[in-house]
Design brief:
10-stranded mixed beta sheet; alpha+beta; disordered N terminus; 11 helices; Tachylectin-2, Chain A; 563 residues; 12% helix; binds 2-acetamido-2-deoxy-beta-D-glucopyranose; single chain
């Protein structure tokens, strides 16, 4: 929890330098003391003076609690200067005692089955520290067979989720269209199927074989291809209450970004997007995907094992998700993660870093309780060590970013007859990225980790990947190609090069083809189920990986304070 003093000072100093350069004519008042949370980062440069239009609002007063809009401006830095690690924790959040239902003892115990997931399949790459999984990344094509003309646009940061097994098509993809000089943000949706070449050695049971045309478009290993023409996803525009300083540019950009799709506890397909905020600059909004794409309504309502309509819609219209108290809102919010412990309850995890965690319960209409994180919980994520920093591949400025929606996992195998979801232990898991930046604050790479937390109050963090994960044909940036492929004999022999500078995992979803009884099970899986990882490449490409959970979630480290 205690960051070394030197490191605490480095960040503000850094930002001071950056901003001094930008606002060199502004009268600059020395760093303000952080007087609030012990875990909070000091907020640098709080009191720039008035006449200059700048991103900093005066948040130095003692009574900020009442002022909703007066918040979060430090996020501009995070966006503009790519993760210098500034978090605006400067607000006094009413501490809510963690839920008391769980006894201290049960909070500290980790499910026995997790002990089976602590061993590593092989040793990590001796240069990059990655564990490489044997699964390939596959191509995604938005050009359906039926298309009259080839899709020339570029797509990135796809979000993929599986339809129920009784659906004709397997997946829904929503992708961002790479901006082609235009300010408008466009996002398209299609229904898609996975195919593999007939000759694929271990052809998985559910998968279709590719036609020649598929192979032509996807490459020799096949992949995921739209079967319906991509259509633009339209959700109503949302006006921004207030975008100030550097954030002003965001105020009027039409369209949403960072779409994420996932199933709620009751099986609603939720589309979560970033769009202008009615309270600040940019906020997170949710809408039922059926309201956007009614074609799937009937599919979700036609479970062969359960009669009646599909799940009720909690978000029939675009609804902004919020933080409570309002003073804890930041002006630019992103990367929130929903988790649903039961059919009827959902929580929003706003941030999870090496020093802080904030989550709250959704109480309807996008409203939430205040922070419910157990104050006794010890941090679990680790920043680069001094040794690593001295090694030259890491620096002080790395930050943790929640990456994907969470999934629920029952800690036994679907194929095991004695495995019972009602009695077995379960956890939530999600991918999280440790973002590394260069000396100018620009992103160098995102390291992919998996993080697990309890499905019972107070939803304690349980475990995290010991090492970052790479897929079989993925490289990481910051090392030579030879170093990156050091753990892959063949690739080294081939002199394989670097590929994809930034690979960013946007979504994890259970793969198509499991025999669910009902859509309410779409967000829950078992150790032998497969997960689809949606991966954006360099803000201009898209791929996916498919991994069995017990391989994705191996080589874990148990969080401090758990036994
Ligand atoms: C900022 O707020 C503090 C306390 O509310 C006040 O004393 C100070 O004058 C304000 N500074 C500016 C530049 O408005
Ligand atoms: C890994 O797979 C992706 C997706 O098919 C492909 O674009 C990329 O070139 C592959 N990487 C390497 C290093 O071959
Ligand atoms: C992805 O597509 C590229 C270009 O068509 C191809 O070179 C590559 O091998 C494909 N990757 C896979 C894993 O099939
Ligand atoms: C929420 O509570 C946890 C535990 O007390 C704390 O670490 C975290 O900083 C709080 N979040 C905010 C925004 O204050
Ligand atoms: C099946 O599940 C039970 C209970 O979850 C476990 O004890 C047993 O070891 C499992 N069997 C196999 C073959 O994995
Ligand atoms: C952190 O970023 C700043 C500039 O943004 C840079 O000057 C500094 O060197 C970085 N820290 C390290 C340890 O590289």
């Amino acid at each position: 929890m205690a960051r070394p003093i030197a490191r605490r000072l480095l960040l503000p100093l850094t930002i001071f330098v950056v901003f001094y350069t930008i606002f060199r004519n502004a009268p600059v008042i020395p760093l303000a003391k952080s007087t609030h949370h012990p875990e909070s980062f000091p907020i640098p440069l709080e009191r720039l003076h008035a006449p200059i239009k700048h991103p900093f609002v005066n948040n130095s007063g003692p009574s900020r609690d009442s002022d909703a809009a007066d918040d979060g401006s430090a996020n501009v830095l995070e966006n503009k200067f790519a993760g210098l690690g500034v978090l605006n924790q400067d607000s006094k959040i009413e501490e809510v005692p963690a839920l008391q239902e769980a006894s201290q003892e049960s909070q500290n115990l980790i499910p026995l089955a997790l002990h089976g997931l602590l061993t590593c399949p092989r040793s990590p790459n001796r240069f990059t520290d990655h564990i490489r999984l044997p699964n390939l990344l596959y191509n995604i094509s938005m050009s359906p067979r039926s298309a009259s003309s080839k899709e020339e646009r570029r797509f990135w940061n796809p979000t993929i989720f599986a339809l129920p097994y009784w659906a004709k098509t397997q997946y829904i993809i929503v992708s961002m269209v790479a901006p082609n000089g235009e300010a408008q943000r466009r996002n398209v949706l299609c229904e898609a199927n996975i195919c593999h070449p007939k000759t694929a050695v271990s052809s998985p049971t559910h998968e279709r074989s590719c036609s020649d045309d598929d192979l032509d478009i996807l490459g020799p290993n096949g992949g995921l291809r739209c079967v319906t023409a991509p259509i633009e996803v339209s959700v109503p525009p949302t006006p921004a209450a207030k975008c100030e300083g550097l954030e002003q540019v965001f105020a009027d950009i039409p369209g949403f970004h960072d779409p994420r799709i996932f199933y709620s506890g009751r099986g609603e397909p939720i589309l979560m997007v970033s769009s202008q905020s009615q309270y600040a600059c940019i906020g997170l909004w949710a809408i039922d995907l059926r309201a956007v794409y009614p074609e799937i309504e009937e599919i979700l309502a036609s479970s062969p094992k359960r009669l009646g309509p599909g799940p009720l819609m909690s978000y029939p219209t675009l609804t902004e998700l919020t933080r409570s108290p309002p003073s804890s809102r930041r002006s630019y919010e992103k990367n929130w993660v929903i988790f649903s412990p039961s059919v009827s309850s959902s929580y929003l995890q706003y941030e999870l870093t090496s020093s802080t965690r904030t989550f709250a319960k959704l109480i309807g209409g996008g409203l939430t309780t205040p922070n419910m994180t157990d104050p006794l919980e010890e941090p679990c994520l680790l920043d680069p060590t001094l040794e690593e920093i001295q090694g030259g591949h890491y620096n002080e400025n790395s930050t943790w970013h929640q990456a994907t929606p969470s999934l629920k996992l029952v800690l036994c195998s679907r194929s095991n007859a004695t495995c019972n979801a009602e009695t077995a232990d379960s956890v939530f898991f999600a991918a999280i990225h440790r973002k590394h930046v260069n000396a100018w604050g620009l992103p160098v790479r995102y390291e992919r980790y998996m993080v697990l937390w309890s499905t019972k109050p107070p939803f304690s963090l349980l475990a995290v990947s010991q090492h970052p994960l790479l897929m079989a044909n993925e490289t990481t940036f910051g090392w030579t190609a030879e170093e990156t492929w050091d753990d892959d004999h063949n690739a080294k022999l081939e002199n394989r090069g670097l590929w994809g500078r930034i690979t960013y995992t946007t979504t994890i979803a259970y793969a198509w083809g499991r025999e669910e009884g009902d859509v309410r099970e779409k967000g829950t899986g078992y150790l032998d189920d497969e997960v689809i990882l949606s991966v954006g490449v360099d803000d201009e490409g898209q791929v996916y990986g498919k991994v069995v959970i017990s391989e994705l979630l191996q080589c874990l480290r148990i969080c401090p304070g758990r036994a």
